[in-house]
Amino acid sequence: MCQLLGMNCNVPTDICFSFEGFCARGGKTDDHKDGWGIAFFEGLGCRVFLDDSPSSTSPVAALVRQYPIKSMNVIAHIRKATVGPVGLENCHPFKRELWGRYWVFAHNGDVPTLETDPEGIYRPVGQTDSERAFCLILNTIRQRFPDRKPPIQDLYLALREITAAIASHGIFNYLLSDGEHFFAHCSTKLCYLVRQAPFAAAHLIDEDLTVDFQELTTQSDRVAVIATTSLTDNEAWTPIHPGELLVFQDGLPLATTV
Fold first, then answer.
1. What predicted TM-score, i.e. pTM, was given to this entire model?
2. For the chain, which residues score pLDDT lower than 70?
């Protein structure tokens, strides 16, 4: 299956360190070699890089690894094709507009029996069950809240409801963000860590690379990193429980009241 990587911060931060190890899993240290993608929110804008080549050898991925784009919300994905052929249209993350904001989505797992919503305005371009699921999520919340983004508690309830319905079709680990809030749902496997003061050094599992974040941060910085499996071998990663939907903002999971 695919793998996910996300970042949510309280200040614009680059993801070069985590992305270095993540890319290695796309054909070097693991077999997720059927394409990759990454999206960076920057204000109301969103840069998306996609390639249907393995991330470990992609020149586009090499550019992103060396280009310190600073963002408060990032979603990345490396693909092992199960539903839909290898092709650029099937590379995650997917992007659509809703309520005047870009929404970005990436999925790990399979929901093969999920059908395309025949009446919704959002339609898949490619052939993946993942893009069908994303379109169904947006169609559902747009129908429920047609004019504007609702309070986060109301949006959380709606997302939790449609997520449970989609997850009944299979495995539905996903990352979703509109650049303001960052949602992470675990169906089988997802974990996160929060880096904040006092910062320390971190060492990648997939590459022999260490970064001392104390030299790169201020005392007020805070960064949440979300991944399918832990990217470092000397930090404490917190597993997200199966069936759990978390909301991150400013580098921390929000306490939901539901």
1. 0.95
2. 1, 256-258
Helix (H, G, I), strand (E, B) or coil at 199: coil
Q: What range defines the domain where residue 164 resides?
A: 3-253
Smallest Cα–Cα separation from 26: which of 3, 60, 59?
3
For residue 36, list its beta bridge partners. Answer: 51, 78
**CA–CA gap between residue 189 and residue 173 (Å, rounded):** 7
Q: Looking at residue 216, what is its pLDDT?
A: 78
Residue 103 in domain: yes
**Active site includes 16?**
no
Catalytic member of 2, 9, 46, 191: 2
CA distances from 154 to 131, 157, 212, 239 (A): 24, 5, 39, 25
Q: What CATH number does residue 102 fall under?
A: 3.60.20.10
**Residues shown for the chain:** 258
Count of structural domains, the chain = 1
Residue type, 3: Q
Q: Which of 178, 92, 73, 167 is nearest to 131 (CA)?
A: 92
- Please report whether residue 258 resides in a domain: no
